[in-house]
Design a protein that fits this description.
Mean pLDDT of chain A: 88
Low-confidence stretches of chain A: none
Number of strands of chain A: 3
Helix content of chain A: 55-70%
Number of helices of chain A: 9
Largest sheet of chain A: 3 strands, antiparallel
Strand order of the largest sheet of chain A: 1-3-2
Structural class of chain A: mainly alpha
Number of domains of chain A: 2
CATH architecture of the largest domain in chain A: Up-down Bundle
Largest interface: A-B, 24 and 24 residues
Oligomer: homodimer
CATH topology of the largest domain in chain A: Four Helix Bundle (Hemerythrin (Met), subunit A)
Strand content of chain A: under 5%
Radius of gyration of chain A: 19 Å
Chain lengths: 210, 210
DNA sequence: ATAAGTGAAATTGTATCCATTATACCCCGC
DNA sequence: GCGGGGTATAATGGATACAATTTCACTTAT
């Protein structure tokens, strides 16, 4: 069967959410600002109903807070926020590693990401890094876990394209360590390493946003 | 300051979601059924706008699935569903235990739950059990983690009031074990026990829904 | 019998309208 | 001048109606 990109677009509420998400993460919309339904609807060129739904989505993602009868205030990257975010990610990604070890999933895609990252330097690190994590989520066999992690990623992690070389190198080494544990099918080891990996990048992030 | 219940009620969309949630969990609405906006709005005595949002909430909770242009189909308690749910809970609750140990939070409320559960037998087990877990989430100091676990609980765990004595006894013993580890401020021990506790109740659940 | 065409029913998005509520402003008394 | 209270304004939350799109089932034609 042909493998073509579907013509049908995502529902408008999703597109609206995506647009707002990008604007918030790139700080195009600044922290503390409050978004009104009507003005954002106008800015997006749509009506308010899907905007309302988009607000729900963003609130779930932790990017905005819906104040009673007062609209959506954009949440920033407070240290507290970052810490909470990464602690949750650490727990879930560690669990994903554990599950991968236990269900003996194929590691092909994951290995490809690591190799690719080695060969291509830290140039398009961001993309490959996400790919690495994403494929672990998939391999966990827990679709809901995978969904939750995607949402978390959208909520914050994606916002910070780390381009610093030193970081990329350190991270790459850790990826290789995790892959090794996954190959050895060692649940405890793999999850522990992943935990450490994520908590370390949390510390990295905290030094920049405090 | 006086501690009174706020007069203001929850938004209608939340009430609608709660009502539907209960109906689904008690199997008042059967698995596989599809809900239409208008009929559920009529049944709830509200208009379709909040129902639409309630559907989003329930979809996020994993109780229904929103098919493109085709409505909301009620998801059942498939073994796969249960497994995914409990694996995630295990990871997050274990993390909560770890955090409680690390931040040295006060264990007063948690201890009260355990003591209360001992004295009152397995009569109102369900409520006290939830209280025990809930207070651990709170003590973790991670508000977002707490919210996510509440949502998960609403999504499935709450549905199955375990009244079987043997289960309550086993569970109670495990609670005491976890509390012991929390008192000792042993992150690894506490999180490992909590993990086991939840995965065991998963097995328990699976024997009933397979 | 298979494939296309048709139509009913539902969601999705649009457009308003009303009620409730939160906030800011102003005025008044002290 | 300062604080408290009332009022005005603006935005949400929800209701209602409607257009557009999509899905699915049923029918029909080859």
């Amino acid at each position: 069967m042909l493998n073509l990109k579907p013509v049908k677009l995502l529902p408008v509420r999703e597109q609206a959410a995506a647009s707002l998400r990008e604007a918030i993460i790139t700080q195009n919309i600044k922290q503390g600002e409050t978004l009104t339904l009507e003005s954002t609807a106008k800015a997006l060129g749509i009506s308010v109903t899907p905007v309302r739904e988009a607000f729900q989505i963003l609130a779930r993602d932790g990017l905005i807070e819906l104040a009673q009868n007062r609209g959506a205030v954009v949440l920033g990257m407070t240290p507290e926020n970052i810490r909470e975010h990464y602690q949750i990610r650490a727990a879930l990604e560690a669990e994903a590693c554990r599950l991968v070890c236990e269900n003996g999933a194929d590691l092909g895609e994951i290995e490809r990401c690591v190799r690719h990252l080695v060969s291509s330097g830290s140039e398009n690190y961001g993309e490959l890094n996400q790919s690495f994590h994403y494929n672990i989520w998939l391999a966990s066999g827990n679709s809901r876990l995978s969904r939750m992690l995607s949402e978390l990623w959208n909520g914050l992690s994606m916002g910070l394209r780390t381009t610093r070389d030193e970081y990329a190198k350190k991270s790459q080494a850790e990826h290789e360590g995790i892959l090794g544990m996954l190959r050895a099918r060692d649940p405890e080891g793999a999850s522990a390493l992943m935990r450490k990996h994520i908590l370390r990048s949390m510390e990295d992030m905290l030094t920049r946003y405090e």
